[in-house]
Amino acid sequence: DPPGRLPAPPLPVNRFRPNMVLRGCPGPFAEDAWTAIRVGNVEMRVVKPCSRCKVTTTDQATGTPADGAQPEPLRTLSTFRSKRHLGTRVGDKTDVFFGQNVCHTQSGGGVAVGDAVEALVWRLF
């Protein structure tokens, strides 16, 4: 995310419980435009934006939940990552999205830390 949008201090990525974290993307939320990717030798289809639940508001190291009716990061993400903002048909109108859900398109292969990621098909907006 562009610096300054989420409040300081920065939240650790483990708050989102990701299966994969990508570095070196062409810009913030580049994955929103991908419909097919290859990670290492595994091809994957980008299925839908990933809706985020209240667990993202809990410190994963201590188990301490954030304070407030709509705590961070959901409060800030709701201002630019909602169903309305993304123009998606999936989810509730109150859902907040961060990342993408993908599924592999063939059996076999494997993914390892450091594998290259290639966007195979891009969605035009």
UniProtKB/TrEMBL annotation:
GO terms for molecular function: catalytic activity; molybdenum ion binding; pyridoxal phosphate binding. It comes from the Eukaryota. Residues 1-120 form the MOSC domain. This is MOSC domain-containing protein.
